[in-house]
Amino acid sequence: MNIYHLEHIRQQFRGRVVLDIEQLDIEQGKIYALLGPNGAGKTTLLDILGFLNHPSHGRLYYQGRMVDRRSKNEILTLRRQVVCVDQHPIMFSTSVYKNIEFGLKIRKYPSPERKRIIDEVLALVSLERYRQAPAHRLSGGETQRLALARALALKPQVLLCDEPTASVDSENKTVITGLLKHINEELGTTILATTHDRLQAASLADHTIVLENGKLAATIYENCFSCKVVASQDQSISAIMQANLSLPLVATHAALTGKRGRLCIDPFAVRINQQGHSGQKALILDSTVVLLMQDDEFIRVIVDIGVQIVVLVPVEEYAAINLQIGERVQVTIPPRAITIFPID
To answer: How far apart are CA 127 and CA 133, in angstroms?
Structure first.
């Protein structure tokens, strides 16, 4: 069952289209990672899904019913079912306990019920010993865990997280990722989390949504990097990506020379340890396997070629290569796997 269905959603800001989605379905009880560069429309989409902003055009359905943006009572009811957790949550300068209690008081929960719920969510995020501590003095990771506890106390159907691990250390990043999985599995909460971390998205989410210039990009474009296109000495065209990784491209990109853009590598077209598929102009790069996981009928393989990229290998093909994490492999990237989107 889909908890959200979007049709022809468009959002404009000062005459500029910042979000343009023809159709999008979000399944109930699943975790979605929302990927894309800054300015791609991720936060705009979260605001629409959280009923904080109305789209300029289009229809939004929630649990099978079209949302009537003219009905203030309906919007208020829906906002009680969807809770947003910001990247930098603001805490009241009171105790951890009272920060969680505030929303429950607003919703008129009786005192014994408030105490029971607060005890439960503090235990869930492992902050029991901080219940009387000043919330505004917690560390970044503890603050993010408190924000999750504060949201979960309201028993939302949907949890929208904007970069939940962007401002925390690696230890708390692991803890928060584990919490989101636990919340989804134990409570059945639908979760959408924005992130720039493709490795985290692959390990956390059931599905990945990729936005590029306000539009949905096919999953083949999930390997996207900032780049600058330059001419090389052998008259081919190269894209200098982040981490100074240079990828030679076919000459059809010559018109982009000197411009900045987004370079995308099709994960279905990349091959691992298959020399016979290389082709005359294909790139053959040494790499290391970083992560392996099932993704429907594919095995998602994340390899490090200087930057980390995703390779989607059909299950039947994967049996022949039998990879291990940490294994050194050769990655073949044919020219057809590389696309550049110019940045306006």
So the answer is: 10
The secondary structure of 154-188 as a DSSP string is T--SEEEEESTTTTS-HHHHHHHHHHHHHHHHHH-
> Do the Cβ atoms of 115 and 105 come closer than 8 Å?
no
pLDDT in tens, the chain (344 residues): 899 999 999 999 888 899 999 999 999 999 999 988 788 899 999 999 999 999 999 999 999 999 998 898 999 999 999 999 988 888 999 999 999 999 999 999 999 999 999 999 999 999 999 999 999 899 888 999 999 999 999 999 999 999 988 878 878 888 888 899 999 999 999 999 998 776 677 778 888 888 888 998 765 556 877 777 777 655 566 766 655 677 766 545 556 677 777 778 888 889 998 765 545 577 888 999 998 887 668 888 999 988 888 899 998 888 888 899 999 999 998 888 887 776 65
Burial 210-220 (b: 16+ CB within 10 A, else e): bbbbbebbebb
The answer to whether the Cα torsion of 320, 198, 277, 272 is positive or negative is negative
Which amino acid belongs to residue 230?
A: V
CA angle 287, 288, 294 (to 5 degrees): 115
Q: Would you call 9 exposed, middle or buried from its count of C-beta atoms within 10 A (0-12, 13-18, 19+)?
A: buried
Q: Which two tokens stand for residue 184?
A: 């989804």
Strand partners, 330: 286
Calpha distance 31→204 (Å, rounded): 7
Judge contact between 308 and 233, C-beta under 8 A. no
d(Cα 297, Cα 301) in Å, to the nearest integer?
13
Distance of alpha carbon 272 from alpha carbon 284, whole angstroms: 9
Residue 272 burial (10 A CB sphere; 0-12, 13-18, 19+): buried
In the block, residue with structure tokens 């429309």: 41
Tokens (6 digits) for 6: 């979007």
SS3 220: helix
Query: Which pairing describes strands 158-162 and 82-85: parallel, antiparallel, or unpaired?
Result: parallel
